[in-house]
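Contributing new complexes? Match this layout with flavin-adenine dinucleotide.
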Amino acid sequence: MQPEHFDVVVIGAGPGGYVAAIRAAQLGLSTACVDAWVDARGNPSPGGTCLNAGCIPSKALLDSSHHYHNLRHLLPAHGIDAKEITFDLARMQARKNKVVDTLTRGVKGLLRKNRVESITGLATLSQGKRIEVALHGGKGHRILEGKNVILATGSVPIHIEVAPVDGERIVDSEGALAFSTVPERLGIIGAGVIGLELGSVWSRLGSKVTIFESLPDFLPAADRKIASQALQSLTRQGLDIRLGSRVKRARAHSQGVSVDFDDHGGASALEFDRLIVAVGRRANTEGLDPAAAGVLLDEQGRIRTDADCRTDAEGIWAIGDATSGPMLAHKASDEGVAVVERIAGGVGHIDHRLVPWVIYTHPEIAWIGSSEADLTEAGVDFRSGSFPFLANGRALAAGETTGMVRMLSDAATDRILGVHILAANASELIAEASVAMAFDASAEDIARTVHAHPTLAEALHEAALACDNRTIHL
Ligand code: FAD
Ligand code: NAD
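Output block (do not edit by hand):
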């Protein structure tokens, strides 16, 4: 079979791959994008983990459960009493599925409009930049050849021997997004991003949630003061987060799941109706056969790349979760654009120091840049300014006073080095910090920027003022 030739072949249509393919087509490069994901009905479903089983369905359920929780717990303080509040989980799940469907259809449309050749099937590398695609549904094979190949094969959940996922009683994040009943007692292994987000969803809907975390510290990558307030807030909401707890064995049986674990008090056991395993994700290279093309993996099984996303094989690039760096959708997309612009002869730019993180609990936890611990370890002299939402007019009006903004700036130059936020909508507030830091702003620059009143963003303004000990409202 003769190969079909393209300027760029992208493997994977997650937020890394489909964005890279669209940008390549915009730049006039003939582009094919191969993706293996199909929905429950067997239809192609581009968008990868993010749209199908990650960012989007989790946020749909977080929003639905948040509305339910607010009706019961926030609105009475506003003088609003709703009686007999109930929810219909089947409708909630159907809405989530519709959101996913709308977005994946949108991606299909975007690929089509941009004249990207979309192919559904599993791609395997062979010598050079040749790719064999086993078409979905046993419809045979296609052979592709790209002048450049972009590997965007994403990641899959890590499964652990002590808690074998069976898809029924013991599930990973994908299973936990699809529960058709609310488990009365829900166990979760891992108090990371997924454990906290999905723990929040099911706790708001009525589960008694226990989270086992082997580390002694809560969210070690986050600012310590923010992490400690977030832990308090989540605990108040009913999440039983057990730090320093290591699960030794989880066994599913007809009535539920028995979990044996060690913690400060020694060996213990608990019974649950369901257990979610959320202990991290690993790069996905299954079926790809990277070695066939001379693409090497690092010691953690991720596709090895240089700072510009080049693999060890000439003309083959890797982006997103499949390679090193944070496993975040926006990191994958921005790497995709940068790589394609490099291929097209442009500069291609992504500042890996400035990738924001958001954890969509309530309040949300967001940060960008360095933490106090990073700066102390690096011996950087810095000053910090904080401002609590308790002293912010808009937060008080909304009844959303938990949280604060912390800003860290260079002691000599005042350049902002990190911003850390715990707030009702920290995910939106962090964008101001992202822009400021991308432009090398100083805390003084934010302090001298007029912020609308009353807004939660005024807390950023006040934190910037606080870096110079001149906050007004505290
Ligand atoms: P993926 O999205 O994993 O896409 C890879 C695609 O490649 C898949 O469609 C896969 O089927 C396909 N593929 C793999 N191998 C082959 C092959 N050989 N041939 C053909 N196709 C192949 N990130 C955020 O930034 N914000 C969030 O709120 C967020 N929430 C999340 C919630 C959950 C529950 C999970 C699990 C993840 C979440 N993430 C979030 C992480 C985010 O989903 C990933 O970082 C992102 O999807 C990575 O994009 P990617 O393009 O690298 O890979
Ligand atoms: P994670 O790395 O965020 O957290 C896993 C947690 O499990 C860690 O705290 C780890 O110490 C703990 N752990 C590991 N093994 C354990 C064990 N045997 N017993 C008890 N605890 C154990 O991983 P995750 O929550 O699975 O999420 C995977 C990745 O997906 C995230 O790192 C992130 O990149 C991405 N994600 C992002 C978002 C977002 O951006 N809002 C949401 C969900 C997922």
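Reviewers usually confirm one structural detail per submission. For this one: The mean pLDDT is 97.
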